[in-house]
Amino acid sequence: MSQLLTQMAEDLYYGDGEAVARATQEALESGLSPHEILADGLIAGMNVVGKDFRECNLFLPEVLAAAKAMHAGMAILRPLLSASDSSNTGTVLLGTVKGDVHDIGKNLLGMMMAGAGFEVIDLGVDVPVERFVSEVEAREPDIVGVSALLTTTMGHMKTLITALEQAGLRERVKVMVGGAPVTDAYAEEIGADGFATNASAAVERAKVLLGRG
């Protein structure tokens, strides 16, 4: 990894959006590809942020600052990433279930999915099952990614899968689930197609589900 990308990851960790944007532009001018910058600069930095957050070495305001800094770099990379993909990898519909307003993991996944060539439709947080179903019918995504950070809200994942079945839409879409309380065993129990412990693994799993991994 180049020194420039190492510094970019460090600047992102400390939430310095101006430095991240500046380094992103410099990296492009030096000949690095958008995908290299995304993977070895922005995502590398956010992976450390996520690790330290889980280990209680960082707190929510610091994580939000880092996410904002990543957005500064992605604002420059996003159009280049889209242009560099000759074909769309697929369409993914993301949302956090009703009653849950946590979105850091979902937002990171959205950015990484976009970087991998997916078209990302983000419904935001506190999304009722009915809206997931109506959006699946209207937009015809390849994958629905559903997140929950609370054990009290993760039951909506099973409700969504049942609602998709009742609407005759289940066979048209893959359902992936994730979030702190979610496990591979739970995903299998409710009939989800995929589960991943982090955003990077989720992207790879999504590609496998669509036969592109």
Describe the structure in your own words.
This protein is α/β, with parallel strands linked by helices. The chain has 9 helices and 5 strands, in the order ααααβαβαβαβαβα. It has helices spanning 3-13, 17-29, 34-54, 60-84, 104-115, 129-139, 155-166, 184-190, 199-209; strands at residues 90-96, 118-122, 143-147, 174-178, 194-195. The radius of gyration is 17 Å and the shape is globular. The mean pLDDT is 90.
Keywords:
single chain; 213 residues; alpha/beta; 9 helices; globular
Give a brief rundown of this model.
With 213 residues, the chain is of the alpha/beta class.
Physical arrangement of strands within the biggest beta sheet:
2-1-3-4-5
How much helix is in the residues? Answer: 55-70%
The average pLDDT score comes to 90
Distance between the termini: 24 Å
Number of helices: 9
- Principal-axes shape call: globular
Percent of residues in beta strands: 5-15%
Task: Provide the gyration radius in Å.
Answer: 17 Å
Which residues form runs of ≥5 with pLDDT under 50? none
Output the helix-strand order. HHHHEHEHEHEHEH
Topology, number of strands = 5
Tell me about the largest β-sheet.
5 strands, parallel
Helix and strand content put the structural class at alpha/beta
Sequence-ordered SSE layout with sheet pairings:
Layout: H1 3-13, H2 17-29, H3 34-54, H4 60-84, E1 90-96, H5 104-115, E2 118-122, H6 129-139, E3 143-147, H7 155-166, E4 174-178, H8 184-190, E5 194-195, H9 199-209
Parallel strand pairs: 1-2, 1-3, 3-4, 4-5
Helix pairs in contact: 1-2, 1-3, 2-3, 2-4, 3-4, 4-5, 5-9, 6-7
